[in-house]
Amino acid sequence: MSNHKYVGMDVHLATVVVAVLDTRGKCVCQSVVETKGGTILDFIGGLSGAVHVIFEEGTQATWLYDLLQPRVAEVVVCNARRHQPKAGEHHADRADAYKLANRLRLGEAKAVYKGERGLRTLKELVHSYHYLVQDLTRVMNRIKALYRGQGVACRGRGVYQARGRERWLAELPEPGLKQRAGMLYRELDQLRALRREAKRAMLGEAERHPACEVLQRVPAIGPVRAAQILAAVMTPYRFRTKRQFWPYCGLGVVTHSTAEYQYRDGKLERRRRPAMTRGLNRNYNRQLKAVFKSAALEALKDEEFASYYQAMVSGGRRPEMARLQVARKLAALTLAVWKSGGEYEAGRVNKQAAEVG
Q1: In 3D, which of 183, 227, 181, 179 has the Cα closest to residue 202?
Q2: What is the Cα–Cα distance from 65 to 10, expressed in whole angstroms?
């Protein structure tokens, strides 16, 4: 029998609980090691045979994957949501490490894609830009909430502009409110400068990758959205068809069916009852969903997409469902153009399916 070791790791901030199984599922050893690269490598180096390691996606997952991947036969980073303990099931660090190792031994673990190292810089810059946009939006909401809390109407974006701030501050009756608003304005200015800096760095890094130029051939996919798609997906060949890509983007429709068969006149036959829709899938990449939803609104300014949308609405489809279909069409076209590396062909929107379908 081949000498294989299956190592399950339950990773924490200070410690890593480790369980090692052999090919028969017997626990060879259990240990607790410090969450430091040298300590973990020393433990792995002491195991003989082909070593297979598994741990859950988390804060240290990328660091641990890069640390172990060159030194073991296999590293699997699994989705923690798929392995939640069942009701009444024992839950402890050692038990969790053992279960992970056993799932890897049985081939039941589904790996999370960790991507190419060449795109790590772009991925981090996209994260920086994304979080700065979120922080900026949060501060802008706080500024408006402050004025509205005092009965001051502040529609539009004029309240955020540097010009006229003294007039807006004069609307606040209390000195404490004025000081608070002034601090929020300074925070707003600093975040705007950081966002511009992060955007320049992100787009500069994205230009180094030829795929970014290919993605921008799709309508409504500009430089920022192209960078975000590239950082999230990394390679289109992760998805064989658009129907595999849609759930990753949060655009996959979930259906439910029950009692599909019945007996009639002593014969088994399938019911003609259609499957019931249960909304969109809940496990998805949130940034990609936001990208394609915003791109769908932008695409409606294009005559081809606008006619496609109007045809669905005229046919009785609700406007929100028609916009969802536009987003799905954009995702399918993005995958097709990315895989082919060719130009976007006008008229493809009204086709029944994209080339990858």
Answers
A1: 227
A2: 14
342: number of CA atoms within 13 Å, CB side? Answer: 7
Residue whose C-alpha is closest to residue 222's, from 213, 231, 209: 213
CATH code: domain 4-106 is 3.30.420.40
Question: In the sheet where 27-34 sits, what is the strand order?
Answer: 27-34, 15-21, 4-11, 50-56, 74-78
Residue 261 three-state SS: strand
Asked if the model's pLDDT at residue 5 lies above 70, the reply is yes
Residues in the chain: 357
- What are 109's two structure tokens? 């673990």
**Which pLDDT does position 89 carry in this prediction?**
62
| Cβ pair 93, 31 in contact under 8 A | no
Structure tokens at 213: 């130029």
Contact between 340 and 237 under an 8 Å Cβ cutoff? The reply is no
Q: Using the 8-state DSSP alphabet, how is residue 274 labeled? A: P
Contacting residues for 295 by C-beta, under 8 A, at least 6 apart: 220, 221, 225, 327, 330
- The Cα–Cα gap between 181 and 165 comes to 10
What's the pLDDT score for residue 275? 64
Report the pLDDT averaged over residues 108-115: 87
**pLDDT at residue 79 in the model:** 86
pTM of this structure:
0.85
Q: Cα–Cα distance between 79 and 69 in angstroms, integer?
A: 18
Residue ranges of alpha helices (H) inside 32-119 are 37-45, 61-68, 93-106
pLDDT interval class at 85 (50, 70, 90): low
Helix (H, G, I), strand (E, B) or coil at 30: strand
Structure tokens at 306: 């606008």
H or E element at residue 40: helix 37-45
Comparing C-alpha atoms, which of 118, 281, 296 is closest to residue 205?
118
Instruction: Give the mean pLDDT of the chain.
Output: 91
39-65 pLDDT per residue, tens: 999 999 999 999 999 999 999 999 999
CB 51 within 8 A of CB 45: no
- DSSP 8-state class, residue 109: P
